[in-house]
Amino acid sequence: MKKITDLIKERRVYFDGGTGTVLQSMGLPAGQAPELWNITEPDRIISLHNMYFDAGANIVKTNTFGVNRAKFENYRELIEAGISCARKAAEGRKDAYVAFDMGPTGQLLEPLGPLKFEEAVSIFADNIKAAAGKGADLVLIETMNDSYETKAAVLAAKENCDLPVFVTNVYDSTGKLMTGADPEAMIAMLEGLRVDAIGMNCSLGPDIMLPIVSRFKKYSSLPVIVNPNAGLPEVKDGKTVFNIDAEAFSDYMVRIAEEGGMILGGCCGTNPEYISKVVSKTASMPYEMPEKKNYTCVSSYTHAVFIDKQPVLIGERINPTGKSKLKAALRNDDLNYILNEGIRQTDAGVHILDVNVGLPEIDEAAMLVKCVCALQGVTDLPLQLDSTNFDAMEKAMRVYNGKPLVNSVNGTGESMSHVFPLVQKYGGGIIALTIDEAGIPETSEGRAAIAQRIIDRAAEYGIEKKDIIVDPLALTVSSNPESAVITLEAVKKIRELGVKTSLGISNISFGLPQREIITSTFYANALQSGLNCAIMNPFSQAMMQVYYAFRALYMLDSGCTDYIAFASAEGAAAPVSSAPAETTLHSSIVKGLKDIAVIHTSELLKNTAPLEIINDHIIPALNEIGSAFEQKKAYLPQLLMSADAASAAFEEVKKHIPLEQSDSSKAIVLATVKGDIHDIGKNIVKVLMESYGFTVYDLGRDVPPERIVECAVEHSCKLVGLSALMTTTVPSMAETIKLLNETDPSIKVMVGGAVLNQEYADMIGADFYGADAMDSVRYAEGFYKN
Amino acid sequence: MYYTDVGLITANADEIEINPRELALRLGTDREYDNETLELCRKRLMGVLSYKCTFIKTAVSFYQEPTLGFSNVILNSKSLWKNLYPCKEAFIIASTAGIGVDRLLSRLKIESLAEYYMTDALASAAIESFMDNACNRISENVSCVPRFSPGYGDLTLKIQPSVLERLNAYTVLGITLDSSLLMTPAKSITAIMGIKDNEKNN
User: Which residues of B touch A336 (CB under 8 A)?
Assistant: First the structure.
């Protein structure tokens, strides 16, 4: 028998339809896992598969959708029995294949859910190991509504068997997965992971899938699978029925086949009758493999960024080179600082974020992984993973949710032999630097020659030209006057090789005064020479002006609408040089006016000592709003807006206090206890504490007692604040207090949260019960005064 | 397991008015409290809300008090007994405001606590408002007792896995549970709503 991947090149093949639908009609009771029938009722499962083969299906899905080690202790046995049933039904039939079916784990992955990425990979890997060699012809990863979990399942399949891998995801009526990915993002990621066929199943009926199929046709180079539900469930006369019958379903499938749907079948609500009609109506329709697409793109967990005619901006700010604050943040594990840089650049309008966390004194691989995961929790932009450490690069590429931009490979044998296998395995666009063992060529021809060598070598790994973006390197004109001219010529020559280009723009002006003038003029020239991507500072007004002006001038901004919006906003947002006369720093904090508080702070800093501003302005203002809140004259949102304003003022002041002089004598460990994910109360306390000058070790939510003790001991911190919102987690709080007391009786523990009161707090041995955030701050202040 | 007898209700963000009483309750303010920041948060939230609800109608069995059963669940709960008795049937409902809200909140947590707190309150009020709307639509021709959720009174969260499974909540709503049986998306609700003896029809 032909391999399924060969058969689909020749003719249209068909999947089966719904499993649950048919099994329920055979008497499977509600609430019982259908997979158990693989062992208890194998004849019925075989008969299910036979019905579908008889209806014209070529591929049946094993009855193993919900099986995994987290749900079934005997998962291996269920998988083996499931494959055996399908195999028996396929026996003696022509063009009859068995797909080992893997559905989602049912748990959401980090950062939004609790399941760790590698744990998900391991769960799927155990399934694949149980299935390998048992008679399946392919692996079908289906009904995935999260791109990240899809990636985990694909990696598990690729790493543990040699079978072809087909993937179908669940798109909703807006054309997105539940966790946000659109078809282009999924195509980019899955093609990068080198699966064999991709598409969609479940959730929608064929009518609503039509526009999604068209997008697959436009962007996918792989065969497209379409397995829809029998429409949407509707309630009729008190009963729920699917709204599309077999006749209508198969008519829609004809249109889907016309739109580019290649491998067709059904999902929930469909039965052999549906498949039979689909086969009879589409079998003689024209059929051809999709054409190879030649666009360049990278993706995040929501969308793809195409690198083509439109200039692409890559934010350069998450890179410690020359940035002492970022260096300090990396050393102190202060992810918030890095996340803020990510959010600010996202808001400033970049399309991709560069992430470089290389510092000699930290574990770069661990930090890069941590930053990539955390950034993907707060921004939906694709990331450019920037490291010269191959181990760090592999780990980051593995956990990245999407198709990353890899920065970088170069023309040295060592670099190519390390980076290309990673891209071959995980997928990615690659920034290719025109440097090799002999250094950076002094001519544009020399740089183009290295680019060509990189392209040729990449091809040996199956990496196509479209995924290579060459950076011919901008070197400072202050030390080499020819530098800009050579680089611009190189951009033109490299574009002729049929690849895209990128430049780290800011380097050009290094060592010169008023760098922005040189940098932005160079950028304009580079764009004119055909540059695609610029690694740049989006907070540079001059750079953004060039970007918008170029697009308007080169017909890349229809009706100049983006330019007009940019220019109008720029005019409107002209920096306010002075705050309204009737306000002060004190009054702006009390009223929660963040921007005005910052202006006042900057003014005061001209002739007032930083600590004086904190003690004489910020703290008294916070005390005033705090008292008003305690006396019920102000609401919590007002207190929080004041805390935001105070934090902004405090940040401004901190710029004038050398880092090593920060006051760390007042410190507190804060955590929401194990089992509880509600952390709003804890976060309110944190911000207030910080605005009062405390060093806060924030351990987050759902924190085990041991971790809290470990942190208090590590930092010799004698004050711990615990929060819980649910009654069920109060025992966990009691356990934490007990462990803290046993470890160091001098540690004081304050507790708070919606379910607590003084009586509870006394019962579990807390030293203090804070009825609200201000109450907690007052206690902490008192603790350190005494 | 995917059940084919599960109903689905969806709504656009602008179809559901966020109940001002629920919002004030969650903000800890009076109903008149409003300012530019709150309005900014409301507008931003509207852009990410994605309301969906699934439900089934099921028989309710009362055994020896406080033991009762419905759908695929048998449990002990005095509070639920009190709420449901003597309804012979009930709707089991799950609804969500979508994962976009969680993403927005993760970002605001870094950016501004005031906006995080306000958005969290708005989103909680929003899902309650949608749930009210969905319950009204589901019970159009019948009369129901107030909805009752796991976590109220002595009704244990332990029934969440069975309830969510029966409602296709993972596949259709994207709701998952962590080891503490808490739901993601965070702004999701499950509930049971007893049907009085079709009073509206009688």
Answer: 110
